[in-house]
Amino acid sequence: MKRLLAVLAAALAFAAVTATPASAEPPIREIHQAGTQNCIDVAGADKADGATILMYPCTHGSNERWQFRSTGDGYSQVIAMHSGKCLDVAGGSISDYANIIQYTCDGGDNQRWRYVQSGQYLKLQVKHSQKYLDVHTRTDNLRHAEQDYVGILLEDYPSA
Questions:
Q1: Where along the sequence do coiled-coil regions lie (predicted)?
Q2: Which CATH architecture best describes the domain 24-156?
């Protein structure tokens, strides 16, 4: 009986040590505008809903770090690491040049993005309108458009 208990205890201890680890978190990334030193940035590191998203010279701050969390349908929520809020097409607009903001993640299709290969760069496409992330040339604010898009590069942010 003691031997059986010892074997069971050893088996339980082994099972506890070899348990399957939880799935790894998606990498944290900076999203760079192709051919520039600009990053997608939450203006002023604002944490509020509705904060402006723009292209800004990279400072490597947490308001320029993003995590792509899969929604299971080929798209991802793009989450600002400083606020925990999602990249969002304001008001769910389908109009060209609608503003891009950060907003509390709610699972809406206007917060689901995928990257699409475009030559040597990527472009971000939003699910609800199938339009692409673009940058307004005079203000550097991000918007979305059917034809226009900003080429991007994703760079994993060091995790240490």
A1: none
A2: Trefoil (2.80)
